[in-house]
Amino acid sequence: MMQPIKPNTMSRYSDKQREVINFLESLVFSRFTVETLEAKINNEYNSNIKFELHSELEGDDERTDFNLIGVLEFKDIFCDVDVYFLPMRCNGFDGSNIMVTEVGYEFE
User: Fold this and answer.
1) Which of 100, 105, 33 is nearest to 69 (CA)?
2) By three-state DSSP, how is residue 86 classified?
3) What's the average pLDDT block by block, 10 residues per block, for the chain (108 residues)?
4) Contact 74, 46 (CB under 8 A)
5) How far apart are CA 26 and CA 21, in angstroms?
6) In this structure, are residues 71 and 80 in contact, taking their beta carbons and an 8 Å threshold?
7) Which of 33, 41, 56, 73 is the most buried (most CB within 10 A)?
8) How far is residue 24's CA from residue 65's CA, in Å, rounded to a whole number?
9) Which residues on neighbouring strands pair with residue 86, listed in sequence order?
10) Element (H or E) spanning 40, and its range?
């Protein structure tokens, strides 16, 4: 389990931004569909994030990074979100078909 980001190590971020970072980091190693991932974030922040597949797919290269890009907007937070994932070989019992491996974020 990932440890929450300590305030003294992330002093350049506001408290609200650290809250968003901790939430996004909590998604790592979880399984979703794109729709359930969007719903989880939208429910948490009462936002309307929509992800766009932004993978560099060239042929059948299995070394390709798979990632989703979206914009999280709520209250006074504006954050570009990158979600890196692995496609699952078969759907989970709940229909999940991706596993989040890493998240990236940039606040404006």
Assistant:
1) 105
2) strand
3) 60 90 96 96 95 72 78 93 92 90 95
4) yes
5) 9
6) yes
7) 41
8) 19
9) 99
10) helix 34-45
